[in-house]
Amino acid sequence: MSDLLTERDGHVLRLSINREEKRNALSAGVMRGMLDAVTAASSDEGVRVIVVSSVGERIFCAGADLAVMASDATGLEQHEGRGLLARLVLAMRQCPVPVVARVQGMCLAGGIGLATGCDVVLARESAAFGMPEVDRGLWPFMVSALLARHISPKHAMDRMLAGDRFDARTAYEMGLVSRVFADDSFDAEVEAYVARLAAAAPVAVRLGKAAWVTATETESLAVALEAMQAQLSLLTTTKDAAEGITAFFEKRPPQWSGR
User: Fold this and answer.
1) Both 233 and 106 in a single domain?
2) I want to staple 163 with a disulfide (CB 3.0 to 4.6 A). Which of 127, 132, 133, 209 is the partner?
3) Do 98 and 194 form a contact (C-beta atoms < 8 A)?
């Protein structure tokens, strides 16, 4: 069976790591599969949401496959393999549709990198997070680049130095997690959330995400505002924008065309 399960459910593309016996660790094959799927979805107007999840209840992702790091692969091969995570994160950020992480269990090391590379992180209340690399003589270099864009420097350094685990509520308070749902309602809450995103105006979401990524990844406020202005002007010329306004005044649900 494949290490990465892909399923198309209407407008939703689901990508699920299927390596439960390996703690859903990130192998090169899994990351290549995700990268290919996200890249293909970026040019598929039928996809409106991507959900990143994993098999099992206990572990979302334990990070990089340490067995590979201890293998006979050359240093260059291992270096290039680590580059796959960077390429995947960039692909998710550049993908025009929302990418949602469904974190049902432990999310460790590179797993945090995978989750924070997504646009939204939904976590089960009993989920746990941690960056234990320092306890293995390593350091979360790749993850730290993402942490700097999500949480305060003091929180980030504390967690990287301590290497201890923290719960979903703490992750939420730090800014790593978007929403936390109770264990017994987690699946239903995630599905309702994803369905709402899939039903949203597709053009508005695509243009909005592109502008948001540009604005949050530039140091210049002027550049950020210019990007927002350009996308707003473009959006107001679309059929969906006209439909949304018309439906509002006619007191009826909008019928999105994606145009």
Assistant:
1) no
2) 132
3) no
Each residue's pLDDT expressed in tens, for the chain with a length of 259 residues: 799 999 999 999 999 999 999 999 999 899 999 999 999 999 999 999 999 999 999 999 999 876 655 445 555 556 666 688 889 999 999 999 999 999 999 999 999 999 999 999 999 999 999 999 888 888 888 888 888 888 999 999 999 999 999 999 999 999 999 999 999 999 999 999 999 999 999 999 999 999 999 888 876 767 766 777 777 778 788 898 888 888 888 999 999 998 8
Shared domain check, 218 and 109: no
Are residues 90 and 217 located together in one domain of the fold?
A: no
Tell me the CATH number at 174.
3.90.226.10
Stated pTM of the model: 0.89
For residue 245, give its domain range.
202-249
> 176 with 241, same domain?
no
Beta 59-61 vs 4-9: how paired, if at all?
unpaired
Instruction: Label each residue of 7-65 as H, E or C.
Output: EEECCEEEEEECCHHHCCCECHHHHHHHHHHHHHHHCCCCCCEEEEEECCCCEEECCEC
**Contact, 38 vs 50, CB < 8 A?**
yes
Distance (Å, rounded) from C-alpha 17 to C-alpha 73?
Answer: 23
In terms of domains, do 101 and 133 share one? Answer: yes
**Quick check: helix, strand or coil at residue 219?**
coil
* Domain co-membership, 119 together with 244: no
E strands along 104-243, which residues?
A: 106-108, 120-124, 128-130, 165-167, 179-181
Does 195 fall in a domain?
A: yes
**Residues belonging to the active site:** 133
DSSP-derived letter for residue 238 is S
Asked whether residue 13 falls in the same domain as residue 107, the answer is yes
